[in-house]
From TrEMBL:
Residues 13-97 form the XRN2-binding (XTBD) domain. It comes from Clunio marinus. InterPro entries: XTBD. This is CLUMA_CG008439, isoform A. Pfam families: XTBD.
Length: 107
């Protein structure tokens, strides 16, 4: 078997969980890997799964080609996740200048 051929039966997705990763992030990344493990080699799908969660949770951007691939591979996975998030409290990040301005205006 070459390095580029998928070796889908000999690896455990769970070994890629990291201590600092939240349950929510892990479950989404795990779902991505499990969904596509039969179509990619281990190293490639682990990398793509990390890119996927970086895009979704951190707002990272990659080349157009990678972004298109992630968008295609995330279909069905990301919609289910986003539906589960509807109605939850959302965080709003405010820049320092805006926060200072808001504080001044409140006085």
């Amino acid at each position: 078997m070459s390095d580029s051929e998928p070796d889908n039966d000999n690896w455990d997705v769970e070994k890629y969980r990291v201590d600092y990763e939240s349950e929510e992030h892990w479950e989404l990344r795990k779902a991505f890997m499990e969904t596509h493990r039969e179509n990619f080699g281990e190293d490639e799908i682990v990398c793509l799964a990390r890119v996927f969660t970086n895009v979704e949770f951190l707002g990272c951007r990659y080349s157009n080609e990678v972004m298109k691939q992630i968008a295609e591979l995330s279909k069905g996975i990301i919609e289910k996740y986003r539906r589960s998030r509807q109605g939850r409290l959302k965080r709003t990040f405010v820049g320092a200048a805006e926060a200072a301005q808001n504080k001044v205006q409140r006085k």
